[in-house]
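Follow-up to my post from last week.
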Amino acid sequence: MKATAWMGKDSVKVVDVPDPRILNARDAIVKISTTAICGSDLHLYHGYIPALRKGDILGHEFMGEVVEVGPEVDNLAVGDRVVVPFPIACGNCVSCQQGRYSVCENSNPNAGLAEKIMGHSPAGIFGYSHLLGGYAGGQAEYARVPFADVGPIKVPDEVPDDQALMLADVFPTGYMGAEMCDITPGDVVAVWGAGPVGLLAAASARLLGAERVIVIDRYPYRLRLAAEHVGAETINYAQLDVLDELNQRTAGRGPDACIDAVGLEGHHGNAAVYAYDRAKQAARLETERPFALRQAILACRSGGVVSVIGAYGGFVDKFPIGAFMNRSLTMRTGQCHVQRYTRPLLEHIVRGDLDPSFVVSHRMKLSDAAKGYRIFQKKQDDCTKVVLKV
Amino acid sequence: MDGTDPTVLDELERRCQGSGLPRLLGVVSLALGVGGLLAPRALARLTGVDDAPQANPVIRAVAARELGHAAGLLVGRRPVGWSWTRVVGDAGDLALLGRALADRRGERRRRVAITTGVVAGIAAIDLLAALRAGRARRSRERLIVMEVGVTVNRPASEAYRFWRDLENLPGFMAHLESVRVDDLRRSRWTARGPAGQSVSWDAEIVEDRPNELIAWRSLPGAPVPNAGRVRFVPAPGDRGTEVRVELGYAPPAGRLGRAVAKLFGEEPEQQVRDDLRRFKQVLETGEVVRSDASPEGITLRQQFLQRPAQPLPAGRRD
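User reply:
Got it. Predicted complex:
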């Protein structure tokens, strides 16, 4: 089959690899109809996630048709149209049973490696380095889906691929980011990052009753999406001082909750500040550029919530622990527990409350994956999200 | 830890300890030291050196040294070192006796000769004791003992039942090829040894408390004596069962011992932890979980020698 393999820093290639097979009794094989490039795939593309190897198949957002099921999968049948959550979760461990699927205790065969860096191992993730399991990803013609009796959900025919595919990662991730804010009437929620996750976090904050949503980015075309599709206010941090602006717009209170939808490869309006962290990251003195996180902590009103859904991989520098501690802030984080959200969010889509596909800017063929990565990386042609048709 | 039952691992520990010989020699030293200090003249007569003017101070000095040995051997923590000081003392004594023998005649010469013979005999025993104590220490150093735990989201009874059927062990213990159960107590274990060779041994269950504890040990003749114990303790607040495993291996000296040490590497617990992770996977999910990069599931080796995250080539079945 054809699959998108990582070939080294800033390089992917569509290559021929063997078709996947059932390895565990609870596996299914899915013939992929649509897959996508995620912002976090760019972290891999740039080589910021450890333990990625040349030849690894990328991709953790995919959907398609079930073509084979293992003997222990009784909820799916060949021919079912399904969307697959990006974290691999067994459904049997305490974490899964408490709804924390992205920290499944059994799905990472390389848990020993992850423990060395993170203390304990999170769940395995499709196409997301050997640290998180070494599972082949879904930017391919077929994928093996472990624990297929837990993760994939069937999609009704009337929901098109572009909408359903958003349930694999970006919509649930954005939604969880908003849910972690414990939104109450009157709340102002600020969102750093107007990528697909940030936009859907802003939309979800609206859905959950936020009074005002303020989205921060530096790309006018992305801020336009936030204004037009979410009804959010916007701040272009390349032109305005974010902290001043947020204080002014909230009459000095600061946002009640702040969502970091940027993660480890942030940018900063001040060139010197950006250069400082960029240099440290290049020298591997820190693994992240946590501008959004620092700013979110400083901006948040005292006693508020900082919700972190942008992806981080290692260690940060200059974490403003003084502001965080003295002002009674709460930080809530996590890779999204997608399995918890797929059904309720599918309901929202079916009812027409929210069409998450507004974030999709480009539709290409799988064979053009390398071009997709390139324009997404360079933010060319107003690129927000690339969907690959197989 | 339950203090009421003798533990399997203690037994393994005992195997590696030296005999009681150093302690016995300590008693001999004590007797000689006390005798020499209280009755140096009688000792001088007995050994045939009572004619020498310096006999008295020399015997007292030797006696004081013997008390030092006695203290070291009887209450000291390192019998190996003290055994060797005895050997050195013996050598000094033999040198003194050699000089005494050279300038004596008649009955005194006979007594000195007998004394020399007795001291030479004691020196041989001392040497043996020192060598044995050294061997015991080295085998204690080779001893691999570890305690690792995992929490499994299943009742203790289920975890116990699965483990008690010893034939299930190779399903999650990476180094085991097979276990054949002969009867309620006895079983035959086969492990992947160094250089692709198999190693087999017989083992017996030494303690079996349903839903609580299983302890086993290898029977005499095992190439690598080993013992283990697993306890199943309900975790508080419905968190499943804490499965706590203690394992001990006593690798022999030589090539096999070195190979075993290499097999376990610098972090022996890591392998057992991975075994327990697989145990948890099997109990909770029904199987060892596999990925494209780790098609055999969790193994330490696999975690460092990953294949790319691509489907396995056709025909390869793990």
